Amino acid sequence: MSPPTTTIYLIFIFSLFIPPHPSTADQSFISLLITQNGLDFVKDLLTSEAISMLTPLWLNQIEKTVKIPLIGKVHIVLSDISVNRVKIGSSYIRPGVSGVSIDGSEVTCELSMKWHYSYGTSSWIAPISISDSGTASVEVNGAGVDLTLGLDNEEGSLKLSTVDCNCHIHDMEIDLHGGASWLYQGIVDALEKQIMSAIEKAITEKLNAGVSKLGSFLQTLPKQIPVDDIASLNVTFVNAPFLSDNSLGFEINGLFVKSQKNTPSLHNALRSPVSCSDSSKMVAIALDQAVFVSAAALYYDAMFMHWVVDKAPEQSFLNTAGWRFIVPQLYKKYPNADMDLDISLSEPPLVQILWQNIEATVYSDVIVNVLEGDETIPVACISLAIAGTGSVEVIENNLAGHLKLDDFTMSLKWSKIGTLHMFLIQPVMWTLIETVFVPYANARLGKGFPLPIINGFTLQNAEITSSDSRITVCSNVIYQKESFDRSSIAS
Q: Which Gene Ontology cellular component annotation is one that this UniProt entry carries (predicted)?
């Protein structure tokens, strides 16, 4: 397995998601629980990739001089030693107090190598040097591999370390080909333990090197995920990782921020652990209401929630003739003049997550402009409070939203054309909100924002529930190897 591929799978365990138990030390607003099914899914991927990483695995040359009865001292050299096939009979992954343990048992390996021996003997004429060579195949049976990884939060990044890593070989068979068969057993007896030790050492070093490289990579992961040119999602790790007997998780800040800006301080009370009604789901991601509040505040501060409407399904509403019987003084002062509506939010939208329901209130000002030549003339401003019901869905790895209009209230903020009768204007505003404002808002909400998931993994069959101040996404996960950009990680 190439180092980048190894990194993908381990990142999935240790940096993909965020945990179930908040802490009072630092604030987090997105939480995630990886269930035992999720861990088993990752374990199966890791097992498959570990096999790829270990084949082929080249071992250092082995040399030894041994004394064989009736022969004397024989110098033996084993070269071109390679592990060509590895099979792991069973494996498991288990979080615990000391870290995450990944164990494989009933491991079998097949090796190939070249052998050469030489020894000298004496005759009444002159010393004679005798040598021979050939190939050998080795089969390892009943081996075990144990790897325990430590997880810590280091200045907002995940620190990965090796707590324990070892390989144990219990039995092996060596079959030599070529040369003098009467010397085979002597060579086998002399080198069996040395070959076992070399295999154990090579596998252990390979795994340690992979963990070290992964640890270095995790330190370089960005602490913000760009959403668009205005906002990013703060994915800084906070508090220590959470490990239990059958779950794994982390905490991140999770609020929307401007690039390189500090996250606003919001209160986050202790929450109950994340859970899913369907225990078969692999992951559970919980997003606190504060995540959506921070998004609304950031886009409002960036003056992003402002647009000019100059086209509408009922285009007559954008000409004073369409207002002739609603606001007669407008038509009288500006007969048959085109209009546009300058819509901006007067304060950040209010989002409330309730039991199986999401309520949103949008406060906006609508300035009615009359267009005369190149001149834009503001004639009135109407304040709106739009009440709607929200819903969310997972599209690939994005959490997208949708707004449905429930009701609205309106009031006249100012007017340059005299008093306006709000009850006459209300049907027009309702139509404009339904046909212009809501579709525009849904076009924005439909793009969603990215959940903190590494490229290559995709949520599948996600289910969403809302409770008091929290949205929970319960999902399975699939891995699409071809979608990962290997160029983003150094080999």
A: extracellular space
